[in-house]
Amino acid sequence: MELSQLYPGIYRLRIDDREHLATLNLAPGVSVYGERRIEVGGWEYRLWNPHRNKLAAALLRGLSPMPIAPGMRVLYLGTASGTNCSHVSDIVGVEGHVWGVEIAPRPMRDFLERVVRYRANVSPILGDARKPEGYSALVPLVDVVYADVAQPDQAAIVVRNAQLFLKSGGWVLMAIKSRSVDVTRPPEEVYEEQVGELKTSGFEVLEVVELEPYERDHAMALARYQG
User: Fold this and answer.
1) DSSP alpha helices (H): ranges in 94-140?
2) Is 164:190 a contact under the CB 8 Å cutoff?
3) Can you name the residues that pair with 23 across neighbouring β-strands?
4) CA torsion, points 159, 215, 111, 172, in degrees to nearest 10?
């Protein structure tokens, strides 16, 4: 077994001649979604499954740079039950914080049970990411907005949240599910349209990576806010 650092807070684990992404478990002894936990040098790491975590898929597809790092503040839009958000919590660590927004009560219950109860650096927000004013008193300026909202107006949602919460020079990671925007159009056309809305709203788009073979008809956009 070999361990190496890919980015601050993100590791590669070689197990039986296979490489895996991993994060240092902020809640040792606890699995969030049945992921494998591996102890190396007295520390517990969680394997980060790219078939269930779009950010892991994007990293394996070559996304660079990786803007989420230890000590950062992250606004996470669309946490669902917290699978990927839990790894973001691992990455930012005890010096960082994640504010997780989810609109649906059932996934929020799972998020509270599986993630929030074990992690002091995660604050749950039951709210509508289309109306960020509703939680503006709960979220400070952040370093990164991560969005996985799977809505037709997802770029507009990102822009509204960034304008309220993202510091100048901050980062956006936007997972684009083309079929949630328009199932009748080619995915590449949808990606271009969503990214174009970011550009016209003051973002510098640095990279767009498609997530196949891990996620079909998905891409991850990396942008920097110049507002």
Assistant:
1) 105-114
2) no
3) 46
4) -20
Do 194 and 217 belong together in one domain? yes
Place of tokens 């749950």: 124
Q: Which residues of the chain have pLDDT under 50?
A: none
User: pTM of the full predicted structure?
Assistant: 0.95
Q: What pLDDT score does 1 carry?
A: 80
Structure confidence at residue 124 (pLDDT): 98
Domain ranges, residue 183: 54-225
**Does residue 83 share a domain with residue 43?**
no
Q: Is 183 exposed, middle or buried (0-12, 13-18, 19+ CB in 10 A)?
A: exposed
The token duo for 115 is: 């993630």
What integer pLDDT is reported at residue 159 of this predicted model? 95
- Strands (E) across 31-141 are located at 37-40, 43-47, 73-77, 97-102, 122-126
| CATH code of the domain covering residue 25 | 3.30.200.20
Per the structure, how many domains does the chain have? 2
Q: What are phi and psi of 41, to 5 degrees?
A: 60, 30
